Amino acid sequence: MKVSLRLAFFSIAATLAYLGLAVWAFGGWTAFMSRPPLLVIAVVTLLLAGSALFTEGNLSSGVREDRGNRWVIPAIGGLGLLLVVLAPWTDRLGWWTFGGEGMRWVGVLLFIVGGVLRMWPVFVLGKRFSGLVAIQPGHRLVTTGIYRTLRNPSYLGLLVNSLGWALAFRSGVGVLLTALTLIPLIARMRSEEALLKAEFGEEYEAYRSRTWRLLPWVY
Do 26 and 92 contact (CB within 8 A), yes or no? Predict the structure, then answer.
C-alpha cells in the first residue's frame, strides 16, 4: 500500500506534538524518561502512529453524510488535548493522583490494548472507515470478526486507550476527561446508527438486535 508523504508528514508531526506536550507538562525529557512506564507509552504511541500510515481511513463525506454530527470531532479532539496535557501536569504536581508504579503499568497495558482495538477496525473497514459520519461508495455492513459482538469496537478502543493514558499518569482528572468523552461518542454512535438504519433498513435492524453498541452485556 502506498503511503502518502503528506499524510505521513502530518501524522509524524501531530504525534511528536502530542508527545511533546505531555513531556512538557510532566516537567521535561529527563523527568519523563526516568519513568519506564512512560517511556513505553511514548514508544507505543509512535508505533500506533506508524501503523496508521498503512490504513485507508479517511475524512471522506462519501455519498451521504450526517453533517450535523461534525461537532463531535472538535469535541473529542478538545477533550483529548486536555487529557494529553492535564494528566501529566497533575501527576507532576501530585494533585488528585492515586496509586504508584503498579498503577502506571496498568495504564500502559490498557493503553496498548485500547490502541490496538482502536486501530484494528480501521484496517478491517479500509476505505469505509471515515472520520465523518458518512456512507461510502460501495458501503456494506461488516458483521463478522469483532463486529459479530460489538458495533463500535474502535470507539471502545479509544476509551480504553484514553483511560490507559490517564492511569499511566495516575490522574484522577484524566479519568474524568475519559468519562466525559462518552458524551460526544454516544452522540456519534446514535448518528451513525440512524444513518446505517436509513441505508440498510431491516438488515441493520437485525444486526443491531443481536449485538452490543460498546461493551458486551453492559451497553
Answer: yes
d(CA 22, CA 3): 27
CATH code for residues 5-209: 1.20.120.1630
Note the pLDDT tens digit of each residue in 139-154: 888 888 889 999 999 9
Q: What average pLDDT does range 11-19 have in this prediction?
A: 86
φ, ψ dihedrals at 27, nearest 5°: 115, 10
Q: What are the residue boundaries of the structural domains of the chain, listed by start?
A: 5-209
Encode burial over 93-123: b for 16+ CB neighbours within 10 A, e otherwise. Answer: eeeebeeeeebbbbbbebbbebbebbbebbe
Residues 79, 159 contacting (CB under 8 angstroms): no
